[in-house]
Amino acid sequence: MTEGNKLTVTYSCVITLAMSISLQTLKEAVQIKEQISQLEARLSRILGGSAPSVKSSSVAKGARGMSAAGRANIIAAQKARWAKAKAESAPAGKPATGTRKKNKLSAAGRAKIVAAQKARWAAKKKGTPAAKATSASKKKGGGLTPEGRARLAATMKARWAARKKAGAPPLNAPKRK
Fold first, then answer.
1. Between 41 and 132, where is the model more confident?
2. Residue 135 contacts by C-beta under 8 Å, 6 or more apart in sequence?
3. 167 in a domain, yes or no?
4. Of the ranges 2-16, 18-32, 61-75, 101-115, which is most confident?
5. Within the chain, where are the H helices?
6. Distance between CA atoms of 63 and 82, rounded to whole angstroms?
7. Taking residues 1-15, what's their average pLDDT?
8. Is 23 a domain residue?
9. What is the DSSP string of 96-134?
10. At 100, phi and psi to the nearest 5?
């Protein structure tokens, strides 16, 4: 903590040091620090420049770089590692290139689909019965015919009558505890 040739010590630093070390050790540390600053000043006079600090003697941040060839070597090595990892994880029988065969539609199949779609749209535009039948057949649910509905109603009425005759309570009656 030197500024020029003066020694500056913050109050919190002194308190922290004083709590952790003895007074004699603290005095010795201050004396050594003063000697270091004096030696740095002498060195700067000899060399004819500013006193080199510990920070300035180390390589400045950003001064270290990497050559293009070094970067290319690292990239090539990484690509090789990934290729090896993909080859090991690829299932047997499939190529390890990472490309898989896509499902393709034949020209004839595509032509059939296009023709059918055009026919549907044309019928819908015209409002022909075929279009109405197609849209009606796509209703959700099974859809009962009137005969089926009548048969179902008759069956249910027969069940209810048999249940009433047997003296059983109706299905929607509250349950007794």
1. 41
2. 124
3. no
4. 101-115
5. 11-20, 23-47, 54-57, 68-89, 107-126, 129-137, 146-166
6. 31
7. 59
8. yes
9. TTS--PPP---HHHHHHHHHHHHHHHHHHHHT-HHHHHH
10. -120, 155
Count CB neighbours of 40 within 10 A.
18
Q: Which domain holds residue 43?
A: 2-48
Residue 118 lies in a domain: no
29-52: pLDDT as tens digits: 899 999 999 999 899 888 886 545
Residue 20 is assigned to a structural domain of this protein: yes
Average pLDDT, the chain: 78
Angle of helix 129-137 relative to helix 107-126, nearest 10 degrees, comes to 110
CA-based radius of gyration for the chain: 46
Most trustworthy range by pLDDT among 5-14, 76-85, 94-103, 130-139: 76-85
Does residue 150 register a pLDDT over 90? Answer: yes
The total of structural domains in the chain comes to 1
11-36 burial, b for 16+ CB within 10 Å, e for fewer?
A: eeeeeeeeeeeeeeeeeeeeeeeeee
Query: Strand, helix or coil at 3?
Result: strand
Contact 29, 20 (CB under 8 A): no
Identify the residue whose tokens are 């020694």: 7
